[in-house]
Structure formats: structure tokens, C-alpha cells
């Protein structure tokens, strides 16, 4: 794939819609809603619950406006990435105690690595947690492996796993407790260097992926799955490639948060919960704006899940108490307020469903920029979808190897 062409085409497609994806809907309501074409909103308002769910999955049931249809088709085409197909099944004993997500991930990563790592003899995992990947790589490939994490408790659990793995050559896996940072770290930097060395990062939060890339310039192979893009600093952490710099998009922290939300196929229950949570939260926001306009946007925080299932009055009381605010309304008045703004909260919800269509494209832009940076460093680079997004939604692998 030509990453530069793809990034250029995506930025051209996304730039005219930046008012939608770069701003928070709720924080800027009602101005934010005005950025959504009327035809899109009337179409979304015409959908029933099943239609809304289809829209959330990226489909356009019924008779969508042409502009929305062609945008989604183009976004779909430009975010499509090749799939890695292979699976290296774990033995029953190796899979024991791992959750379904971890088994799914490790089985695919092992298969992905096998044909690409013939010359690799040692590896390092940034944010290796309990070291499951490390342990199973040692078993499969007989590499020497260093698993680095700043969480000592996770590593201690990992050592327990290692003690239980009777057939494993234990001296081959070493846990290093430290925080990996930009800048020189003489104790660990050599681990990332050498054509026989592989550098791994399986779900490196935010800028940790960039730290991994910078430390691995002399590695034989780099494998990274990004996550938590909202932990990136929009001004500092992107674009990172020279080509990306010439095709800069107006990323904001709201856009970065949106990039973490690309996820397909919610179950009916998950969709219903999301709708309920949004409905309660939006009604509270409208209430606060009317009663306390001088406060502007008020952060309400996440409520315990069970609270969203209660009436609006119960949810609102809990949040208002936490905020130390008194609206002087009875339970019945609060519930009737919620009913009176329901068409507006639905509109805010529909704007979110429409805005979510940009999530995967923003993630792909971030990863294309990283892929191009690695090409600029002289690596041969692949971007592949590896995990089933229902199990592991941050499913795109960035794989870089030395051309020689
Ligand atoms: C999302 S978890 C992924 C864990 C593991 N790779 C996996 O796939 O299960 C991210 C891990 O990175 C670790 N981490 C985050 N920032 C780090 C840093 N700067 N240096 C070392 N470890 C870090 C966290 O402690 C956490 O264990």
C-alpha cells in the first residue's frame, strides 16, 4: 500500500468536515449541532431504534442523503486495510488462565511474527505487563526476551506465571521494572538495537508508541499496536512524519478521543446502554445550562453504571449532589424536564452517531503518519488488521522491518 497516497486522500476527505470531528458536540452545543447538514439530521431523525443501531454500525438504512452516502463510502474505502489471516493456536496448558481477548491476540501475533522474524534472536516488549506475549514468544521462537513495564505488581504476577511454566527456559525471559521514556536510558536502550532484535509494543498507550519507535531506529523489526490516542498531545505528538507535517489536520483532544472510539458491532444491550447513558447525560447538561448559564459547560463525571438505569431524577440528583448544586426541583419536576427536552437530547445523540463515523478514519490517519515516519527512517512497513475488532478494537498492527 502507498501510505503517502492514502494519507493525502484521507486528509483531503476529512479536512472539510473538521468542524464535526474536531469539536465536542456537548461542550459546544447548540453551535456544534449547526455544523451538521440539515439533510443528515433529518435523515437520522427519520430512523427508528433499529435504524439508529445500523447507523452506529456504519450502515445507512433507508434513504440517506447523497452527501452522507458518498462520504461514508469514501471513508470506508480509505480506512480499509489488509487483514493478517494466520493463527498459531496455543496449547491448552499455555492458554489456561488467559482471557479470550489475550488468547485471540497472542495467537495472531505469534502467527504474524513467525515468517517475519527468521533473523531475530532477542526481543523487548514495551509495556509488557504480565509478560504473556514474552513468555509465549520464548516458547515459540526460543528468543531471549526482556519485558519492560512500570507496573511492578503486574510483573510480579508475570513471574508467577513463569514459575508455573515448567518446560520454559526461564533464564530467557527477564522482567525489567522501569518507565520507558524519551531520551537516553543507558540501562535499556541497547535492548532496542541490533538487526537481531525485535521491539514489541502491544497496545502502547498514547505517546508510548512514539517512544518505542524512536528507541527502535536500529532494531531489526518493530511491531506496535497503538491505543489510547486521547493520551497523545495534539500539538506535540502528531504529525510525526515529514510527509504528515505537510498534510497536517486540525487534530484536537476531542478528535484524539474520537479516534479511540472506532468500534464495530455493539450488541443490542451495549447500544441500548450507550443510548441511555447519553440521554441522561445530555438532559443533565441542558438542565445545568438553563439553571446555571454562568457556569458554561459543567463536567458531570461518570456515574456508576446502575444509576443510568434509574429515572432521570435519581441520576440527576446524584450528579447534582456531587457537584454541590441545588436546582430546587422535585423528583417529578426533574423527570418532566427530561421528557420536555427529549427531542433535543435525541438530536444530540444523533449528532454523536454521525460524528462517530469519522473515528476509524482519524485512527488510520494517526497510524499512517507513524507508518510513514518509519519509512522515512528506512524501514519497510506494513499496516495490517490483525484482531477481531469485537474482541480487540485497536486491531491495527504497525510492522516495520529492515529492508536488508
Ligand atoms: C494497555 S497495557 C498493555 C499491556 C500488555 N502489553 C498487553 O497487551 O496486555 C499498557 C501497559 O503499558 C505500561 N506502561 C505505560 N506506560 C509505560 C511506560 N512509560 N513505561 C513502561 N511501561 C508503561 C502499563 O503499566 C501497562 O501495563
From TrEMBL:
Q: Which organism is it from?
A: Melittangium boletus DSM 14713
Which Pfam families does its entry note?
Methyltransf_32
SUPFAM superfamilies xrefs: S-adenosyl-L-methionine-dependent methyltransferases (SSF53335)
* Top-level taxon in the UniProt lineage: Bacteria
Protein name listed in UniProt:
Methyltransferase domain-containing protein
Q: Which residues form a coiled coil?
A: none
Q: Which InterPro entries does the record associate with it?
A: Methyltranfer_dom (IPR025714), METTL25 (IPR052220), SAM-dependent_MTases_sf (IPR029063)
Cite the Methyltransferase domain residue spans from the record. Answer: 101-233
Amino acid at each position: 500500500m502507498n501510505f503517502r497516497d492514502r494519507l493525502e486522500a484521507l486528509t483531503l476527505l476529512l479536512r472539510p468536515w473538521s468542524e464535526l470531528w474536531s469539536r465536542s458536540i456537548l461542550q459546544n452545543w447548540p453551535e456544534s449541532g449547526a455544523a451538521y447538514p440539515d439533510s443528515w439530521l433529518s435523515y437520522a431523525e427519520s430512523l427508528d431504534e433499529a435504524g439508529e443501531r445500523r447507523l452506529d454500525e456504519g450502515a445507512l438504512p433507508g434513504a440517506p442523503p447523497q452527501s452522507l452516502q458518498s462520504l461514508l463510502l469514501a471513508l470506508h474505502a480509505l480506512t480499509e486495510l489488509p487483514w493478517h489471516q494466520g493463527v498459531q493456536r496455543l496449547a491448552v496448558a499455555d492458554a489456561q488462565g488467559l482471557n479470550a481477548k489475550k488468547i485471540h491476540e497472542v495467537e495472531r501475533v505469534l502467527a504474524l511474527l513467525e515468517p517475519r522474524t527468521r533473523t531475530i534472536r532477542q526481543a523487548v516488549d514495551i509495556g509488557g505487563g504480565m509478560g504473556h506475549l514474552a513468555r509465549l514468544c520464548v516458547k515459540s521462537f526460543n528468543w531471549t526476551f526482556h519485558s519492560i513495564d512500570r507496573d511492578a505488581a503486574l510483573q510480579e504476577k508475570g513471574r508467577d506465571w513463569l514459575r508455573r511454566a515448567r518446560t520454559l527456559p526461564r533464564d530467557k525471559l527477564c522482567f525489567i521494572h522501569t518507565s520507558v521514556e524519551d531520551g537516553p536510558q543507558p540501562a535499556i536502550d541497547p535492548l532496542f538495537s541490533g538487526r537481531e532484535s525485535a521491539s514489541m509494543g502491544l497496545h502502547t498507550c498514547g505517546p508510548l508508541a512514539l517512544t518505542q519507535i524512536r528507541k527502535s531506529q536500529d532494531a531489526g523489526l518493530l511491531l506496535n499496536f497503538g491505543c489510547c490516542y486521547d493520551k497523545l498531545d495534539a500539538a506535540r505528538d502528531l504529525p510525526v512524519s515529514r510527509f504528515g507535517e505537510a498534510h497536517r489536520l486540525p487534530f484536537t483532544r476531542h478528535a484524539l478521543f474520537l479516534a479511540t472510539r472506532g468500534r464495530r458491532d455493539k450488541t443490542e444491550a451495549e447500544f441500548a446502554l450507550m443510548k441511555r447513558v447519553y440521554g441522561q447525560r445530555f438532559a443533565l447538561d441542558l438542565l445545568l445550562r438553563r439553571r446555571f448559564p454562568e457556569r458554561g459547560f459543567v463536567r458531570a463525571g461518570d456515574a456508576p453504571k446502575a444509576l443510568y438505569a434509574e429515572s432521570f431524577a435519581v441520576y440527576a440528583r446524584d450528579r447534582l449532589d456531587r457537584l454541590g448544586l441545588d436546582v430546587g426541583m422535585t423528583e417529578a419536576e426533574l423527570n418532566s424536564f427530561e421528557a420536555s427536552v427529549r427531542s433535543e437530547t435525541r438530536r444530540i445523540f444523533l449528532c454523536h452517531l454521525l460524528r462517530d463515523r469519522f473515528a476509524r478514519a482519524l485512527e488510520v490517519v494517526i497510524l499512517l503518519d507513524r507508518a510513514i515516519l518509519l519509512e522515512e527512517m528506512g524501514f519497510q512497513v506494513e499496516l495490517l488488521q490483525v484482531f477481531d475488532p469485537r474482541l480487540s478494537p485497536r486491531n491495527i498492527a504497525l510492522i516495520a522491518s529492515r529492508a536488508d
